[in-house]
Write a structure and sequence with these properties.
84 residues; 9 strands; single chain; binds zinc ion; three-stranded antiparallel beta sheet; 3 helices; alpha+beta
Length: 84
């Protein structure tokens, strides 16, 4: 089962936080990146899971479907860096 996140939808974006509880994450090809985490000393701003703020459930990148108005996020970019 996968969860859908509409990247352009503020309600959806605010529902999900990085492992440290920030809402400043951005998707990358194979994982996520958090602006707040990357600013902290000794913290890797990259991670592979997002936490659902409401339920506390943690989802792996592969279990999340990221959707933009133009279509599914990974499909838009997958051609650029070869196969995963
Ligand atoms: Zn963070």
């Amino acid at each position: 089962m996968s969860e859908e996140i509409r990247l352009e939808d503020e309600t959806d974006r605010w529902r999900w936080v990085c492992p440290r509880g920030h809402r400043t994450w951005e998707p990358t090809n194979n994982h996520f990146w958090c602006q707040s985490c990357s600013r902290q000393r000794g913290v890797d701003g990259e991670f592979s899971k997002l936490r659902n703020k409401a339920t506390g459930e943690v989802f792996e990148r592969e279990d999340l479907r990221l959707v933009t108005p133009a279509g599914p996020y990974p499909d838009l970019w997958s051609g650029r860096e070869g196969s995963a």
